[in-house]
């Protein structure tokens, strides 16, 4: 009887110990799991971006994308930097890479916004024609921009550029990133 009691107590202790150990290791593993926000490349990119050293920030974001290819915010931040440098083709290129990966209509609209900042109505109309269904929620903004551009309505264009983020691109793209992936 005593031997059975001792074996039951040992089994209970072993069971509880194994649960605590596995819970400990699970918590430890999830805490130590790699995160793009904890990446050195992310920290470096943010620092260079704040210092307006855009070339170094782009390099750090490129390394971050190599390390975390599913981190949409890095693509969006790179596009933002290209827009600040007025390298619209660079911004479109990185956003097209992001669209190939995530197929998000928000990414398509970011591409249209780059073309709005550039003033390229041909590309906007082409994108609208090719992706009308995906861009349906953004059609009023895009068509308002195109109408104002055709009518050369500078006041409406200024208002739409503010809506599209060309006046304060960083905040607007961050809001878009939050909407696309829940970032920030």
Secondary structure category: mainly alpha
Portion in strands: under 5%
By CATH, the architecture of the largest domain is named Alpha Horseshoe
* Radius of gyration, whole Å: 25 Å
Uncertain segments of ≥5 residues (pLDDT<50)? 20-30, 166-170, 180-184
Model description:
The chain is an all-alpha fold. It folds into two domains: about 1-35; about 35-180, Alpha Horseshoe (Serine Threonine Protein Phosphatase 5, Tetratricopeptide repeat), CATH 1.25.40. It has helices at about 1-30, 40-50, 55-65, 70-85, 90-100, 105-120, 120-130, 140-150, 155-165, 170-180. Helix 4 (about 70-85) packs antiparallel against helix 5 (about 90-100) and helix 5 runs antiparallel to helix 6 (about 105-120).
How is the secondary structure organized here?
Layout: H1 2-32, H2 40-50, H3 54-67, H4 72-84, H5 88-102, H6 105-118, H7 121-130, H8 139-150, H9 154-164, H10 169-181
Helix pairs in contact: 2-3, 3-4, 4-5, 4-10, 5-6, 6-7, 7-8, 8-9
Note the main attributes of this structure.
Serine Threonine Protein Phosphatase 5, Tetratricopeptide repeat; 2 domains; flat; disordered C terminus
């Amino acid at each position: 009887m005593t031997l059975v009691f001792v074996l039951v107590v040992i089994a209970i202790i072993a069971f509880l110990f194994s649960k605590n150990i596995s819970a400990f290791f699970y918590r430890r593993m999830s805490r130590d799991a790699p995160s793009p926000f904890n990446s050195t490349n992310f920290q470096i990119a943010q620092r260079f971006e704040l210092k307006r050293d855009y070339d170094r920030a782009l390099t750090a974001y490129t390394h971050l994308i190599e390390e975390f290819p599913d981190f949409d915010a890095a693509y969006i931040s790179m596009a933002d930097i290209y827009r600040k440098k007025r390298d619209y083709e660079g911004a479109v290129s990185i956003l097209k890479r992001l669209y190939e990966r995530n197929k998000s209509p928000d990414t398509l609209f970011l591409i249209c916004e780059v073309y709005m900042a550039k003033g390229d109505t041909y590309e906007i109309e082409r994108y609208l024609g090719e992706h009308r269904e995906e861009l349906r929620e953004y059609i009023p903004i895009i068509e308002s921009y195109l109408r104002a551009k055709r009518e050369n309505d500078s006041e409406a264009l200024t208002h739409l550029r503010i809506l599209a983020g060309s006046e304060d691109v960083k905040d607007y793209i961050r809001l878009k990133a939050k909407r696309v992936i829940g970032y920030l």
